[in-house]
User: Fold this.
Amino acid sequence: MPGQKIMVNYARISRDFSALGVEPGQVVLLHSSLSSIGWVEGGEHTVVAALRESLGPHGTLAVPTGTSANSDTSPIYRAAVAGMSADEIAGHRSRMPAYAPASTPSNLMGVIAEHVRTLPGARRSAHPQTSFAAVGPHSAAIIDGHARDCLLGERSPLARLYEAGALVLLLGVGYDKCTAFHLAEYRYHPDPPRRSYRAVVDDGEGRAWCEFEDVHVDDSDFARLGADFERAVGVRCGPVGAARARLFPLTAAVDYAAAWFATNRAPHP
Assistant:
């Protein structure tokens, strides 16, 4: 029947990953939507298991595990407090939990990424808003050292993934979810636009607010950028279950995006 979801099992997903170009030993940054794949036997557990099997024991899988709900400078916060009184906002802020890498759930990253975060042996970066999690032999090198005043730049896992020659796997999602493009926002101009950020943290002395300044990250043009990137550079595309998947080098995406931003974004004085 038109629009009916297909049933997908482990063997089908494994074959699709292999046909797409996922191979043993690779480092992969995954962005994903479970529902796009179809009715998956075993859900997110099956998808992650099949992908890790394709990567083998020497491969590493990384995912974004951001927590924008603990920030009062994020769109999710502004939506939550819209229409609240001053007292209600104060109460909401008092209940916002401090970021804890080992236990704070991600926001809006999808159930596949959240499953990776909770895997035995997975590591998660310390940033209170834009953390990443990774599992595999390169996870420590990718995750450790994520500076608080560097959401997605040179002192974040994205830069380590760039150095590792990682691949980006967009699984049932579009280029608007491609965090690799954010690294290019730090590189396309010697002084990119900046702004202030705030988040709730606990550095061992109890719950507290922290504030820092960093590049003003903006994904509003990522879909257009991604379409141009795919036409210009070439991307491996194929199905994983019912989902459209794309696999491409992170370095190529960042380098192309840096040049694209320099041409297509308004000059920064």
